[in-house]
Amino acid sequence: MDINIKIQDLKSIIKEHAPLLIAYSGGVDSTLLAVLTRETIGAEHMHCVLVDGPEVPRRAVTAAINQSEYLKIPLTVREGVPFSRDLQKTNPHDRCRHCKLGTYTILKQIADDTGCTYIADGANASDLGEHRPGIEAFSSCGVIHPFIMAGITKQDIRDIAKSMDLPFWDKPSSACLYSRIPYGEEITDEKLRMIEKGEELLSDIGIRQARVRHHGLIVRIEVLPEEMEKILIQKDTVHTFFQNLGFLYVTLDLKGYRSGSMDEVLKLSS
Questions:
Q1: What is the CA angle 150-151-154, rounded to 5?
Q2: Cβ distance 103 to 81 under 8 Å?
Q3: Pick from 18, 24, 187, 248: CA 20 to 30 A from residue 197's CA?
Q4: Which residues are CB-neighbours of 6 under 8 A, at least 6 positions away?
Q5: Domain-by-domain residue ranges, the chain?
């Protein structure tokens, strides 16, 4: 389908569901949805909410707030609902479902307070082929997915943002820090901070897209194949930094960065 037709369909969906509250993360998907919603129905008929918690990198929160101000997107930042101790210990494969259900209670309250009829997120058609219990949880609560409804993919989103000269069109993809810890292994604040600091270091040395996967004493670093040389050139710096964080073995995943690599174990057991 022609991308212009998809955009028109998307705008129609936005109009049909106004006033609209958007679950906002500062990523490419939710930010483009926010921009298009503002342009379609006006800032007075929308609201964005960033739910903050220990799973969200501090730099990401700051960047999301700054971006919303630059783009004139109305935004509320609200503290998230923490995981129960049991969920932290078991870290189940449907972890995202529990997280989204907690997030929904916050979004619904703000939607009621701001007079928004519907809640939307930035899930897109490319997400449908992946392990996404969070999308299912949001759907069960009545949250709509305008990009999916319009058949818009992840690449479509980047293409649209680029065509609009939006500065975030090529922003690296991101995910919550929980996704760096294998299912079944306990989530702790210490692990989250190790992961966050490790990814900050990789960003600081010029790596655009990276994941720091926490496997106990082993860290598995994922970067794009074309960025592996940057790691190797600075391997002493990287090795020392991660060992100082508490990892004994510092490894580079030769398959490279890929979204949802922790879900690969689910395919082996299915």
A1: 115
A2: yes
A3: 24
A4: 150, 151, 152, 156
A5: 3-163, 180-269
Q: How far apart are CA 246 and CA 191, in angstroms?
A: 10
pLDDT at 270 over 70: no
pLDDT tens-digit readout, 235-260: 999 999 999 999 999 999 999 999 88
User: What pLDDT, in 10s, does the model give residues 97-114?
Assistant: 999 999 999 999 999 999
Side by side, the strands of the sheet bearing 249-252 are 210-215, 218-223, 249-252
Q: Reduced to 3 states, what is the DSSP secondary structure of residue 129?
A: helix
The domain made up of 180-269 has a fold known as: Alpha-Beta Plaits (3.30.70)
Pairing of strands 75-79, 46-52: parallel
Residue 114, token pair as written in the block: 């701001």
Under CATH, which architecture does the 3-163 domain have? 3-Layer(aba) Sandwich (3.40)
Whether 142 shows a pLDDT value over 70: the answer reads yes
